[in-house]
Amino acid sequence: MEEGADTGVSSRAERKALVKAKMLRRESEREIFRLVGRALKKPEAERSEEEAAALLLHKDTAEELCQRQVRRSVLKRKQEEVIDDADELKNKIRQLAVAVKQANHLVVYTGAGISTAASIPDYRGPNGVWTQLQKGRTVSSSDLSKAEPTLTHMCIRMLHKEKMVKHVVSQNCDGLHLRSGLPRNALSELHGNMFIEVCTACSPVREYVRLFDVTERTSLHRHGTGRRCSHCCGDLRDTIVHFGERGTLEQPLNWKGAAEAAEMADVILCLGSSLKVLKKYACLWCMNRPVSKRPKLYIVNLQVSLVLTFLRK
């Protein structure tokens, strides 16, 4: 019995010693990072002997901190909005107009940037949702049920009416494409629609289009809206693909329509999106084809697109 007790006390002591050693090692590493970081911020001529010695002794740490700074600088540049001068803008508009006119099967991909004129914040712009959250700021909510389709939404709808746009693939949940009059069969809302709730107990799935936001009670993996189907009394759920989820509903997501449109597209026009999310969906970019056989791509966005390197592979 005593030997077993001694063994237990010994193993606990060893675990405590290991935990303490790990904490001391982490604190030592943090101190090294602080010292090297301070040294790197100073011009070489202003560094103390201790700081110069630290940079020589901890070359790997210095290199890692330099790489982090490069990545931060690149990210900051990508978040900056760039506006072309008047002549360059006119030239690009002419090129885009020719491409739209000559396209046999034009598909439009839209992001949050096309809804900012309706006072709906984007995500990665200077005042975007993710940008504000990264800075530790709160994001104010607004009543999106009062938002009206913007000039961009109405132009897209008119281009579809004139048979110049075949399909619209949207990341937006604000419902403004539908409010513009764009037909449901010409639209894929890949992340859902905050004004639509559905009953999946009914076959086919029964839809309820509301004038109010149905997502007031929903969140990640919690889709119940608290209302019931008037036909079968089943629980209604939202159609939103929350961050970290994969969408499974046929409508309004309409993945089939999006994939078929991409397969037939000879021109893809992307409006108001960094494409950071859309680039993950290879089927939308015809990645199974050689680069020369893929649709021509035109991007209209104030920030650098995050999809270009991916598409050149």
TrEMBL record:
Catalytic reaction equation(s): N(6)-succinyl-L-lysyl-[protein] + NAD(+) + H2O = 2''-O-succinyl-ADP-D-ribose + nicotinamide + L-lysyl-[protein]; N(6)-glutaryl-L-lysyl-[protein] + NAD(+) + H2O = 2''-O-glutaryl-ADP-D-ribose + nicotinamide + L-lysyl-[protein]; N(6)-acetyl-L-lysyl-[protein] + NAD(+) + H2O = 2''-O-acetyl-ADP-D-ribose + nicotinamide + L-lysyl-[protein]; N(6)-propanoyl-L-lysyl-[protein] + NAD(+) + H2O = 3''-O-propanoyl-ADP-D-ribose + nicotinamide + L-lysyl-[protein]
Pfam families cross-referenced by the UniProt entry: SIR2 (PF02146)
Alphabetized InterPro entries for the sequence: DHS-like_NAD/FAD-binding_dom, NAD-dep_sirtuin_deacylases, Sirtuin, Ssirtuin_cat_dom
Enzyme class, broadest EC rank: transferase
Binding site for Zn(2+): C199, C202, C229, C233
Cellular component per GO, a single term: site of double-strand break
GO molecular function terms noted in the UniProt entry: histone H3K18 deacetylase activity, NAD-dependent; metal ion binding; NAD+ binding
Catalytic center residues: H191
UniProtKB keywords: Coiled coil, Metal-binding, NAD, Phosphoprotein, Transferase, Zinc
Coiled coil regions in record: 45-106
UniProt record, GO biological process: DNA repair-dependent chromatin remodeling; epigenetic regulation of gene expression; regulation of mitochondrion organization
Domain Deacetylase sirtuin-type: start-end pairs: 86-313
EC annotation from Swiss-Prot or TrEMBL: 2.3.1.286
Cofactor dependency: Zn(2+)
Summary of subunit composition and partner proteins: Interacts with UBTF and the RNA polymerase I complex. Interacts with components of the B-WICH complex, such as MYBBP1A, SMARCA5/SNF2H and BAZ1B/WSTF. Interacts with ELK4, leading to stabilization at target promoters for H3K18Ac deacetylation. Interacts with histone H2A and/or histone H2B. Interacts with DNMT1. Interacts with SIRT1.
PANTHER family hit by this protein: NAD-DEPENDENT PROTEIN DEACETYLASE SIRTUIN-7 (PTHR11085:SF1), NAD-DEPENDENT PROTEIN DEACYLASE SIRTUIN-5, MITOCHONDRIAL-RELATED (PTHR11085)
Annotated family: Belongs to the sirtuin family. Class IV subfamily.
Entry protein name: NAD-dependent protein deacetylase sirtuin-7
Source organism: Scophthalmus maximus
